[in-house]
Design a protein that fits this description.
18 strands; TIM Barrel; binds ligand TNX; single chain; 2 domains; 30% helix
Length: 516
C-alpha cells in the first residue's frame, strides 16, 4: 500500500441517502488507475457509463481485455418497460424488510441497484438506466483519495432501492425567475441525492414563465419582472425541451405546474377577457397571496384552461401535470370545484395524470389523482378521506420540507409562516404517520419545495437547499428502519467538503460537525 498511500476515511463510507444495505467487505480497497476501463455492453447503459468515466477519469469500452481491472455496468431484465425518468409507477409500498433480499440479489423495483467493489474491480447491476445512475451517485460518494493522491474505493457490497416512488423538489420560478443554466445546477444536485421529480411552479400572480403557443400574450406581457421589480424572464418551448431532456438524462421527470384557479394575476394581466371587468389587471410584484382568481361564469375561462393545459401537456414527456389549486380566498366551493374539475379534465384529455395542492381534496376527484399536502395548519381529515377514496398523497409538510423557511429567527433569507426549519426538523419526521389514518398504499412520496419570494440568486437558492435537501432526500429514499438522526449527522458532515469543491453556497448548520 505504500505507493498508494493511506486512506483518509474518518467515519467510514458516508452515503446519503442511506442505502438499504451497505456492507464493508474485509478486502483491500480498489485502486483506480488513470484511464481505467468502464465496460458497458448495453447501449442503454452508455450515458451512465460516460458519467462514471468522467467521474473517475476512465474510458468507456464495449468489452475489456481478460484479467484487467474494470468498472462494469450491467442492465438486467426489468419488470416494466417505460423509459427511466418517465416512469414513476409505484412498485413499492412494501416495507424495507420485504424488499431486501436475504442473499445478495438485486432488490425489487425499477430503480434498485447492486454495487460490488472488490480489489480487482467494480460491478454495478440495475434494471434501468435510472438504477445505474443511482449506483454511480453512490460510487461518487464512496470515492476517496489517498494521501498519495490515488483514487480508491473501499471494498463494499451495496444493495439499494428507494422507499418512495416520488422523491421530488418543487421550485418556484415565478416569484423570481431561475435561468435554465441555474436549474441544471439544481438538477445535478437532485441527482446527487437520488431525487427523481423536478416540479416547476411556472406561473403565479407575479409572472407567467412558460411560452405556450395558444396564448402568446402570457409571457409577452407577464414575464418581464420578478418580485420587487427584480429582473424577469421566461422559458421558450426550446428552453423547456432542453431542460426536460437534461433532467430525463439524469433519471428525473419534470412535472410542470400552471397554478389555477387562484394565483392567476399574471394571466389576468395578459388577457382582459379573463376578468369580469373585461380589462387587464395591473402587474403585481408584491408577495401577498390569495387575491386573484378565475371566474367560472366567463366564456373565456373554459377555453383558456383547455388551451394552456393542452399545450403544457403536449410539451411534457412525463406522465404528470400539476394544476395548482391552492389558496383561493373568497370563492364559493361550487365555483372552485367547477374550475378545478375543468382544469383536471383538460389535463386528462391530454393524456396526463393530475396533481394538485391539498385544497383540491375538497372537490370530487378521479381515482389516482395526486394530492400534494403542504399546509400543516389545515384539518387533515379531507386528505385522509381522499386517500381512502383512491387519491394518492404527496407529502410536502411546510414545517419539514418547505426549504424557503428560515433556518432560525433572524436568518437573512426566507419566510417564517410555517416556522423555522433547521436541518433536524427536515430529517426527523415519519411520512407513514404524518396523516394518521391514511392508507399506506395511498402514500406516493415526499417532495421538498422552495418558494422564491426572498431568493434572488443561485447562491440564495442553494443556501436554502443545502443541507436540508439531503435530509428530505433521505426521508424519501431510505427505509424507515434505516433512518437515524445521529447516524445521518455524521454522514452528512462529509458532504460539506463536496459542496465546497463544487463551488456551491450552503448553510453550515450548527447541528453538524462539518468536515471542511
Ligand atoms: C404558500 S405552498 C404557497 C405559496 C407561497 C409559499 C411561501 C402553496 C401551495 N402556496 O404561494 O409561495 O407558501 O412559503
Amino acid at each position: 500500500m505504500s505507493l498508494v498511500g493511506s486512506v483518509r476515511h474518518v467515519t467510514g463510507p458516508a452515503v446519503v441517502p442511506r442505502p438499504l444495505r451497505l456492507q464493508q467487505l474485509p478486502d483491500e480497497p480498489f485502486v483506480l488507475l488513470p484511464g481505467i476501463a468502464v465496460v458497458a455492453p448495453d447501449a442503454a447503459a452508455r450515458h451512465a457509463a460516460q458519467r462514471l468515466a468522467a467521474l473517475v477519469g476512465g474510458s468507456v469500452q464495449a468489452a475489456a481485455a481478460p484479467d484487467t481491472p474494470v468498472l462494469r455496468l450491467r442492465l438486467l431484465g426489468r419488470d416494466g418497460d417505460d423509459l427511466a425518468g418517465d416512469d414513476l409507477a409505484d412498485d413499492d409500498g412494501q416495507p424495507a424488510a420485504e424488499r431486501l433480499p436475504t442473499g445478495d440479489e438485486l432488490p425489487v423495483g425499477d430503480e434498485a441497484y447492486r454495487l460490488r467493489v472488490r480489489p480487482d474491480g467494480v460491478e454495478v447491476d440495475a434494471r434501468t438506466p435510472a438504477g445505474l445512475g443511482h449506483a454511480i451517485t453512490t460510487l461518487a460518494q464512496l470515492l476517496t483519495r489517498t494521501t498519495a493522491g490515488a483514487q480508491v474505493l473501499p471494498a463494499v457490497l451495496v444493495l439499494d432501492a428507494p422507499r418512495f416512488a416520488w422523491r421530488g423538489l418543487s421550485i418556484d420560478v415565478a416569484r423570481h425567475f431561475v435561468r435554465v443554466g441555474d436549474l441544471e445546477v439544481v438538477v445535478d444536485l437532485m441527482a446527487d441525492h437520488k431525487l427523481n421529480v423536478l416540479h416547476l411552479h411556472l406561473t403565479d400572480d407575479q409572472a407567467w414563465r412558460i411560452d405556450l403557443p395558444s396564448r402568446p400574450e402570457l409571457v409577452r406581457r407577464s414575464s418581464g419582472a420578478s418580485v420587487g421589480g427584480d429582473p424577469g424572464g421566461h422559458y421558450t418551448a426550446e428552453d423547456y425541451a432542453r431542460l426536460v431532456a437534461y433532467a430525463v438524462a439524469r433519471g428525473i421527470a419534470v412535472v410542470p405546474e400552471l397554478d389555477v384557479p387562484g394565483h392567476v394575476n399574471a394571466a389576468l394581466h395578459a388577457y382582459g377577457d379573463l376578468s369580469p371587468s373585461g380589462r387587464p389587471t395591473d402587474e403585481y410584484l408584491g408577495i401577498e397571496v390569495g387575491f386573484s382568481r378565475l371566474t367560472a361564469a366567463l366564456p373565456a375561462t373554459g377555453a383558456f384552461l383547455h388551451d394552456v393545459f393542452g399545450d403544457i401537456a403536449a410539451m411534457t414527456p412525463g406522465p404528470y401535470v400539476h394544476i395548482g389549486g391552492d389558496e383561493v380566498q373568497g370563492m364559493a366551493p361550487d365555483e372552485y370545484a367547477t374550475l378545478v374539475g375543468t382544469a383536471a379534465a383538460a389535463v386528462r384529455a391530454a393524456g396526463k395524470q393530475v396533481v394538485g395542492w391539498q385544497e383540491i381534496a375538497t372537490t370530487p376527484l378521479e381515482p389516482g389523482t395526486v394530492v400534494q399536502y403542504w399546509d400543516v395548519h389545515a384539518d387533515p381529515a379531507p386528505f385522509v378521506a381522499a386517500g381512502a377514496a383512491g387519491a394518492r398523497l404527496l407529502l410536502s409538510p411546510g414545517d419539514r420540507t418547505y426549504l424557503d423557511m428560515k433556518y432560525h429567527p433572524g436568518y437573512p433569507l426566507g419566510l417564517e409562516w410555517a416556522g423555522h426549519v433547521e436541518l433536524r426538523d427536515s430529517y426527523d419526521w415519519e411520512p407513514a404517520t404524518l396523516l394518521p389514518g391514511l392508507p399506506a398504499e395511498a402514500l406516493l412520496g415526499v417532495e421538498a419545495a422552495v418558494w422564491t419570494e426572498t431568493l434572488r440568486t443561485l447562491d440564495d437558492l442553494t443556501t436554502m437547499l443545502l443541507p436540508r435537501l439531503a435530509a428530505v432526500a433521505e426521508v424519501a429514499w431510505s427505509a424507515a428502519d434505516r433512518r437515524d438522526w445521529e447516524d445521518f449527522r455524521t454522514r452528512v458532515a462529509a458532504l460539506g467538503a463536496r459542496w465546497d469543491a463544487a463551488g456551491l453556497s450552503w448553510y453550515p448548520s450548527p447541528q453538524v460537525d462539518w468536515q471542511r
